[in-house]
Amino acid sequence: QAFREKMGAISCRWRDLHSKEAQLKSHMEKYGRTLKENDELRRQALKKAIEEREKRIQKDRELLRAKRELEDLRNKHQKLFNKVQKYSIFKKYLEDVVKISQFEDIQGVISRYRTLLRVCQDLLQAQQGHVEMSQQARLLLDRYTAEKEAEILQHRNELVQLQLRLEQAQSDTLLWQTRWDAMQSTTAERAQELGSIATAIHSLFQ
Question: How confident is the prediction for the chain on average, in pLDDT?
């Protein structure tokens, strides 16, 4: 009986342990899910914080760039304002020109000036074209002159060679003429000797 009572108590404690184990397992599962959820929330919060930080950095960069652009625009505006102030005297001058001329407004004066400027540019281009054509003609003339001078020099060299050959031919002619005269003189002497011999032979024959 005591054993059964003890076993019954043990069975009750065993059931309680199983129940507590099941509760503990359920609690551990819930705790695990909570940890996972907390980790996920922490990761999401960290990701969101990083994204917000990057967005803030990007906005700071854009703001800095916008400030620089604004500063550049202010500087350009100041320069343009200074230029307008500097050139305001020309506007007054053009207004005075309109008053004493046949132009109706400043735009007419500017249009006339642009027309004259285009005409001047066209004349300059035409003049440049004439200068280039003149330079090309000069180059062609120089080339032609150089070629003709080279031909003249060649003909002069040929003429010198021909003169040298002529002088040599005249010298040879004089030499051969002297030899010819000597040969004729010798022939005459031989003919006279031959005549004398023929006369002697004829006399001897007689």
Answer: 87
Rounded Cα–Cα distance for residues 79 and 172 (Å): 98
Question: The domain containing residue 128 runs over which residues?
Answer: 105-170
Is the distance from CB of 106 to CB of 94 less than 8 angstroms?
Answer: yes
The per-residue pLDDT for range 83-120, each reduced to its tens digit, is 888 888 877 887 787 778 777 787 887 888 889 899 99
| CB atoms closer than 10 angstroms to residue 94 | 18
Instruction: With respect to residue 136, please indicate whether it lies within any of the assigned structural domains.
Output: yes
Question: Shortest CA distance to 198 belongs to which of 187, 206, 185?
Answer: 206
**Other Cβ atoms closer than 10 A to 93:** 13
Torsion angle of C-alpha atoms 179, 181, 186, 190, degrees rounded to 10 = 140
**191 in any annotated domain:** no
Q: 121-166, pLDDT tens digit by residue?
A: 999 999 998 889 989 999 999 999 999 999 999 999 999 999 999 9
The answer as to whether 186 is a domain residue is no
pTM reported for the whole predicted model: 0.33
Per residue in 7-40, pLDDT (tens digit) is 888 888 888 888 888 888 888 888 888 888 888 8
DSSP for residue 103: -
For residue 52, tell me if it sits in a domain: no
Count of structural domains, the chain: 1
